[in-house]
Amino acid sequence: MRKTCLDVVYELAKRDERVVFIGSDLGAGTLDQFRDEMPDRFFMEGVSEQNLIGMAAGLALEGFIPYVNTIATFITRRCYEQLAVDLCLHNLPVKLIANGGGLVYAPLGPTHLAIEDMAILRALPRMTVLAPCDKEEMARLMPQTLALGGPCYIRLAKGGDEIISDAAHGFTIGQAIMLRQPGKVLIVGTGITSTRAMHAAKELAEQGIECGVLHMHTVKPLDENAILSCLNDVDLLVTVEEHTLVGGLGSAVGELLVDKAPTSVGRLLRLGIPDSFADKYGTQDELLEYYGLQGPQIARRIRDVLNGAGEQVA
Amino acid sequence: MTSNFQAKIEGLQYDALQIRRNVWRALHGAGSGHMGGSSSAADLLAALYFHYLRQRPDEPEWPGRDRFVLSKGHANAALGAALARAGFIDDSVLDQFYAYQSSFGMHPDIKMPGVEMSTGGLGHGLSVGLGMALGARMQNLDFRTCVMLGDGELQEGSNWEGAMAAAHLRLSNLTAILDYNKVQQSGRVGEMLALEPMADKWLSFGWAVREIDGHDMGAIVEALDALPFAPDKPSMIIAHTVKGKGVGFAEDSYLWHNNLVTDEVYERALNELGAPE
Fold it and tell me: Residue B117 and residue A51: Cβ atoms within 8 Å?
């Protein structure tokens, strides 16, 4: 997914002289072709995220469109005030490409796990927050970032992720994709949790429980209509995110229901990472399982709620 | 010193006096504000706006303009006074300092003509300024970028990331000007979190450095005219200044970093400065 993303940045740079790439000590081999062919617009700077964001803002003020790439935790937490003031307040078209969203960097431990990135970025006015589910969707997403007037955050998955997106669905930033039509249950996922949601929906269907999947690749601005238009037909709305339950997709959907469909709040089940730092290493998949976010676990938790035996929904 | 040069300096000194007077006027109208760091920067701003910067007040977005970023944003009263005097904004705006519908806030706001960057949180301007300077170089444009820093501001680590990067990128079209008044909100900078040796720090980070008396208009002009100080390095002007310069009771005192301006205080200030003309 990262390679696809950066390949598109290269393609965009080839046809648009405003495109600049700024990386932060990303290691050998990153966009060598870009560096060789467009050295004036390629910057591999050191590990100084506050300066990178400020520099990108200055370039954007001069008409450039910088794509900034580094590890998700560092491009968010380390330079949060620069994101707020330099990028969002000035509404500048700087694109943040965040390696290792969620639990991808499981072996590196809690310093490298980006589990609150969507919450803190979502809190910034003018910031668009994106989490595609696979590399094919990434290829459809990236060209659209060029015309996006303001800042955006692109959360990358691990790479080699199962392909669930479909070109037939098209792609528009801000418009959720119904990957599977809703039944009595609708799961809303983002990033690779939409993949896990598809696994869960398939299992539930085999057990006679029709379950849809709405892929919310754009967490902000949230596609409110995509959710509200389904509420009449579903008994249970489930959000699944590779992110803390504080402030992410589940919170966004919960806020929407409280504000615009308060009678539906009791039908919302939010699945995600509890308010804690990871105390395990291993792999992304192992941590997803630890937090109950793999397909079979999602299916079980939904069954339990439908049976009145599981987690309390409101 | 030629008589022409002398006349130029005297004119700029008068511009600086008007900036100081208007700082107190704006703060009095609003009731409070940052008189200390606004007054220390007045001579530097006068030299920038009325001698050095190539700008078109009637065309604030002119692409060829020199960029000026007030990174120590709390001195915005002085910037506003300079922008009004230069003709970017109407003089009456100075009577609307942080008023509800005004774009003249306590910190620079890009909604105001002539303001290049909204600042306020410290430690942002240098990196954004170096991005502008880099943008100029990449497009073969000859505009120059100046960033004014405060000394207390330099306690923010982001400045030193920017200092490293600007030197690494050899941005000779970037100038930082340090308003080194040595006093911050809670006391003397040297007692809060010491910054000396200042010049050595910037030299060791790869900058070309010149130290001047930031109230000696001749020295300011000569330093600006000597830019860039080196062909392949960013330039730093360390301007030694006095906080609250021009009004005795406010000089060199952390109590007048930010304070109320009552009618009585304003009258005492005007007794020293004279009223804006």
Answer: no
Interface pTM, i.e. ipTM: 0.96
> Please, which residues bridge with residue B70 across strands?
B148
Tell whether A125 is within 8 A of chain B (Cβ). Answer: no
What is the sign, positive or negative, of the torsion defined by CA atoms of A250, A253, A257, A263? negative
Q: How far apart are CA B123 and CA B195, in angstroms?
A: 15
Please determine, for residue B261, whether its predicted confidence score (pLDDT) is greater than 60. yes
Which residue of A43, A51, A70 to mutate against B (max B Cβ within 10 Å)?
A: A51
| pLDDT given at position A309 | 76
Q: How far apart are the first and last CA of chain B?
A: 28
In this prediction, residue B277 carries a pLDDT of 87
- A55 → closest Cβ in B118, B123, B127: B127
DSSP class of residue A115 equals S
Read off the pLDDT of residues B100-117 as tens digits, 9 standing for 90 and up.
Answer: 999 999 999 999 999 999
Backbone angles phi, psi at B110, to 5 degrees: -65, -10
Show residues of chain B in contact with A52, CB under 8 Å: 127
Interface subset of A 72-91, CB within 8 angstroms of B: 81-82, 85-86, 89-90
Q: pTM for the full model? A: 0.96
Q: A70 vs chain B: nearest CA distance in angstroms?
A: 16
Cα–Cα distance, A186 to A194 (Å, whole number): 11
pLDDT of residue A313: 65
Write down all domains in chain B, each with its CATH number in brackets: 3-273 (3.40.50.970)
In the block, tokens 């701003």 appear at B45
